[in-house]
């Protein structure tokens, strides 16, 4: 277990500009997705500030840990992370699923959380790719330089 913590700390020690880029991108992404989910009546957070706890305090560190891994590996680990988050959110009623929403209609109510987990697991590989592109554009840093 000690080896894991050492590995994790090295993955989490990143340039402050990269961390700020992650925080800004994920915060805006979270606000947009929460707004969209409420507008089309799929699902929403009970409180707006949950964007901070879920997207910044939960998803950013996981993204940093998964950064640099192959797409399928990021997705697989992201699926576990999002499955736990979705399960917890609906079990604790900190997330609200609109009755008879489009996902319920397409996949049935029993598969709603699974569908959400399968979709949101894509955030990790797509988020790492997108933040990397934005960071490169803003700061002129290449993928190889970021990995060092």
How would you describe what is shown here?
- The chain crosses the membrane at residues 18-36, 48-66, 75-92, 112-131.
- The chain has 148 residues and is mainly alpha-helical.
- Helix content is 74%, strand content 4%.
- It has one domain.
- Strands 1-2 form a two-stranded antiparallel ribbon.
- Helix 4 (71-91) runs antiparallel to helix 6 (112-120).
- It is globular and about 50 Å long.
- The model has no long low-confidence stretch (mean pLDDT 92).
SS element count, helices: 8
Helix- and strand-based class? mainly alpha
Number of domains: 1
In angstroms, what is the radius of gyration?
16 Å
Which strand-content bin applies to the residues? under 5%
**Strands in their spatial order, largest beta sheet:** 1-2
DSSP helix fraction: over 70%
Characterize the biggest β-sheet: 2 strands, antiparallel
Report mean pLDDT, rounded to a whole number.
92
**Poorly predicted regions:** none
Give the structure's gist in a few sentences:
This protein has 148 residues and is mainly alpha-helical. It has 8 helices and 2 strands.
Layout of helices and strands:
Elements: H1 2-12, H2 16-39, E1 43-45, H3 50-66, H4 71-91, E2 95-97, H5 102-107, H6 112-120, H7 123-139, H8 143-147
Antiparallel strand pairs: 1-2
Helix pairs in contact: 2-3, 2-7, 3-4, 3-7, 4-6, 4-7
Highlighted features:
74% helix; 148 residues; mainly alpha
